[in-house]
Structure formats: C-alpha cells, structure tokens
Amino acid sequence: MTTWYLGLATSGHDPALAIVDETGQVVYAEATERFLQDKRAWGISPDHPPHLERALKICGASPETDTFIVGTTWKAMKAQMDVKIHDAMLPALDTLWMRGLNGSLQAMAGHSLLRLGVTPDRQRLLRHEHHLCHAVTAAWFAPLSDALVLVLDGEGDVGAVSAYALEDRALKRLWRSWGPGSLGTFYGWLTFRCGFDWRLGEEWKVMGLAAYGRVIPHLRAALQTLLTVKDGRLLFAAADRIAEVQQMASTYARTISEPPMQAADLAATGQAAYAALADAVIGDLLAQQEGPGPFDLLLCGGCALNSSYNGAVANRLGLRSLHVPPCPADDGNAIGAALLSWMQDRRVPTIPASPDCTPFLGMEAGLSGRDLRPHVRGFEVKDVSGNTAAAVAEALAQGRVVGTFRGRAEFGPRALGNRSILADPARAGMKDHINAIIKGREAYRPFAPVLRARDTADWFTSAEASPYMSKTLFWRQERQDQVQAVVHADGTGRAQTVTPEMYPWMHDLLDETERRTGQAVLLNTSFNIMGKPIIDTVEDALAVLSTTGLDTVLAGDLLISKPFG
After folding, report:
1. Is residue 410 domain-shared with residue 551, that is, in the same domain?
2. Contact, 93 vs 86, CB < 8 A?
3. In terms of domains, do 337 and 485 share one?
C-alpha cells in the first residue's frame, strides 16, 4: 500500500491538481482547464472525477488499495473569514460570487476519491494557508537553499501580500498584510477600464497594450495614491479618493466595443503605477533585512505573472537574482498544498527541491503505437522517429508554422516547447500571420522568443535567466531587425532561455535551426486559439491544424502537414 499526497487548488478559479509521492517529489501536476478545455474552469472541482482518474492512473496509484492525504490551498473558506468585502475597485458581486465558488470547492475537496472507490477512513483532509502554498511552490522550483520569498496576490487568507525567509530550505514567515489592499485587485480594475475582462484572464492584453502607450505623469501619480505601501503592506485609499482617481482615469478608458489603442495610454500609465507600487513593497522588504545584500528573491502569487515588471526589477532594486516559478498563480498552489501535506504527514520541516526544475509535469503525449493515419486524410504524414528536432527545424526554415504535441505537458499558463506553436521570427509578417489566421488574436499582441541560455547576452541587453518565460527583456537594438516577429513595440521580448539540461529537445531544435537559418531564435507561443486553454490531446492538436492556418503538427514522432505550396 502506497500513500499519495493530493494537492487541490480550491480558489474557485484556475483549479488544478498535483500529486506528490512518498519521497516528497511532485510526480504530476495539471490544471483542470486543460482537461476540460474550459478557460480558467471557473467553479469546477480540481478533483473533477475523470481528470483525477486519469492522473492517478498515470501515477500508478490505486484508489482501491492506496492511501490518499488531500490538501487544499486555503486554510478556511473565504466566506467564513472576518474580512470586509471591498467594492471600491471591483464589484462586490464578483467577490461574493468567488467566495461562493471557493466555499463549494473547499467543502467538497477530496470527495471525488469516493467516486473512484476510496473509503472515507483512508482519506485525510488538510487545509493550508493560501500564501504559504504559493511560497512552497516557488521554493520547490528554485535551485536555492536561502532566499527571500514574496507573495504578491489578488488576495490571501487575510491580505494580499506575504513575506517569508527561505533558510536551509525551511520557510519562516516574516510578515503579512491584513485587509483588502491588493495590487492584483488594482490590475483587475485596470483591465476592466482598458476594456478587457480579468475574469477571462485578459490582464495579458493590458501588458501587451502598454507598450503602445505613453505614461501620463499626473495620472500615474494619481493611480499610485490608490494604494499606500507601509512596511511592505498595502492599504487602499479612502473611498472618496478612489472615486476621484477613477473619474480621472475614465478620460483615458475604453469600452469593449472601442478600438484597443484608445486605452494604450491608460495601460502604459497603469503598468508604470503598478511597477512603482511593487517596487515599494520589495524595497521595504529588502530594507527590513539585517544581513548584507544582495539578496535572491522568489516572487510568486498572481502578480508574478506580470513579466513586463519582472524583467527589470532585479537590476533596478539591486537583487542578486529573481526567480519566478512556471506556475506562480493559483493553479500552481496545488503543488504547494501537496508538498505541505507530505511535510506535515512525514514531519519534515524542509521543502524538497525539484531535481531538475522541470515544468513538464502533466500528461504525456501518449502516442506510442497509435496509428493516426486514418484520422488525418488529406494531410501528409511522415514518421520522423529519432529525428524530430531536425524535421521541425526544416519545416520552420521553409516558413511553415508548426505546433508541437510531444512529451509531458507544461504546468503553468505558458507553453515551453511541448505544447507550443513555433515559427521563424525572421520572416516578415509572421506576427500578423499567426495572430490573424491561427490564434485569432488582436493584431497588437506580441509573441515570445525562445533561445539558448548561452546566447542571451548576444541578443538582449541583460543576460538574465528566464527558463519559464517569466521576464520581459530588452533586445539589443542592432539585432531587432533579425527577429521582427518577436520584438514588441517597446523593444522587448518575453524570453524563454533554454539549457540542454532542462530543455534538451528545444535546445537541439535551436541548434538545428541555427544550421539552417544562421540564428538560434524561434517564435514560441502556446498551442491554442484565443479564448481556449492550451491543448490537452492529439485530437485538440489536429482540430487546430484543421480549422486554422497552422501548417504542421509534430504529434509524437509523426510530422503531420498540410500540402505545401
């Protein structure tokens, strides 16, 4: 009989599950949205029975004979917490709705194990602090024994900011904020005022749009007064001040029916205000440290997805390094809950470290022995076993856009090679082509570059490691014309830097690309269309191939292509 530790992300949005084995290693982690193909999967149980059944089968767990200890990502139900609902920035009805979803998922956590045959007396339920789950997830992915850890979030059990010290792989909480002051809420409000919807995960659109706008100094100063930073803690301004600033911002806002560029200045100004406030939080944390710097910082929580901010903060604030996990938001908390459950059950005070920091924790592509040919009539099918990187590089060099469905799926919101759409960024018009006839996105939206870590300083003005696409870096001006499709309007790129140890296949692909085109940089975007999650199955991959302008799919060892020409 084996004991498994099941972590469930129970916020009510972005549900996910993670499984830790008896040795304390994460053996599986996957967002529910992938399995259901329902973006953000609002209100869906993270242990959705068919999804959980698939995960347990992949891990080799037996519901009939094994023991399961279940951990959730909240200490209590939000509705039971003595926290006043703040409605000056976001509608109170949204908060009440989310509290209801959270209460339902917290109450039902682990019940799906009963559906799969686990008896109640072999199931323990542990509840963990939300921000502690974030911090543990970040620490698991970090190749460090000591660091500062900062959680910047939409909300937590009692507030939206928490600070920890990681010492010899053990976490000690330094402080946390109390009350509704929240940079996540601020950015959600900004997203609405720019004509987008944070509930759909459209904060990305604001970050991309900001590059086209100008920062309006008096508005930035006003936006910064919406929140006060004191000793790292955040407090909202008084209601009348919030109303005054909102009225000022309305001059630059847009409705959903108006052109996005109408809100470019508001996006740029809001991003600048966010950066100043986040700097103040981190600056206070650094000032509170007694030892000499510089310090390593692990940044997590939903705000850590702001790659535009992450790219410059280490140099600006004098950090030795900044580490952001591939899954810093609430889906990633499933890993923290599973690890905390293992630590509590085994009485282990230290956080295990990922042996290779890999983000590939999801379902294997699983095409071994499967004959896809009857399902792909009209397409050219070529077996490229043992030669997949070279075959994809050749297709890319010919100008084809290739989707990859190979290996285990990435955990987190960003495709990192195994569920990616790849293209040659040197080709004129490639960005517009992919946005228009493959992804179905707004024309201004940028794409990310992937390159070898050893080449980072050749292409960017700073050589920061960014293995999970968590940082936006500035391109060297003299090289921007060589990779036009991945250079954003402000001269930046949300880089993925790869090493042969962490990303052997992608590293080989970049080597093969360099042999054909003379440069080892590719465009890398998630294998999906707008409004849908990253693909989960080969059927999803073939659906995108069949219904969009995508040219080719690498499915396992098969290269499936539309006729060329």
Report:
1. yes
2. no
3. no
176 in a domain, yes or no? no
Structural domain that includes position 66 = 3-140+329-357
> Do 136 and 166 form a contact (C-beta atoms < 8 A)?
no
Q: Does residue 160 register a pLDDT over 90? A: yes
**Alpha-carbon torsion angle 271, 277, 281, 287, nearest 10:** 110
Task: Answer yes or no: is 26 within a domain.
Answer: yes
Residues making up the chain, counted from first to last: 565
pLDDT digits (tens, 9 = 90+) for 10-36: 999 999 999 999 999 999 999 999 999
User: Quick one: 372 and 387 in the same domain?
Assistant: yes
Residue 62: what are its φ and ψ, rounded to 5°? -115, 110
CB 12 within 8 Å of CB 515: no
CATH for 311? 3.30.420.40
Q: Is residue 146 part of a domain?
A: no
- Do 93 and 44 belong together in one domain? yes
Per the CB < 8 A criterion, the answer to whether 520 and 455 are in contact is yes
**CA-to-CA distance for 4 and 20, rounded, in angstroms?**
6
106 and 246, same domain (yes or no): no
> For residues 100 and 45, is the Cβ–Cβ distance under 8 A?
no
Q: Looking at residue 280, what is its pLDDT?
A: 98
Rounded Cα gap, residues 447 and 526, in angstroms: 9
- Of 138, 487, 60, the residue nearest 299 (C-alpha): 138
Ramachandran area for residue 514 (φ above 0: left; ψ -120 to 50: alpha; else beta): alpha
Q: Phi and psi dihedrals of 211, rounded to 5?
A: -65, -20
Are 459 and 451 spatial neighbours (Cβ–Cβ below 8 Å)?
A: yes
pTM: 0.97
CA torsion angle for 170, 171, 172, 174 (degrees, to 10)? 140
Provide the angle, in degrees to the nearest 10, between the axes of the packed helices 307-317 and 264-287: 40
In a domain, 157, yes or no: no
| DSSP per residue, 465-500 | --TTS-EEEEBPGGGGGGGGGG--TTSEEEEEEE-T
Computed from CA positions of residues 181, 184, 185, 191, in that sequence, does the dihedral angle turn out positive or negative? positive
pLDDT for 376:
81
Question: What's the total number of domains in the chain?
Answer: 3
Say if residues 493 and 211 touch (Cβ distance below 8 Å): no
**Residue position matching structure tokens 């459209």:** 202
Task: Please indicate, yes or no, whether residues 309 and 187 belong to a single structural domain of this protein.
Answer: yes
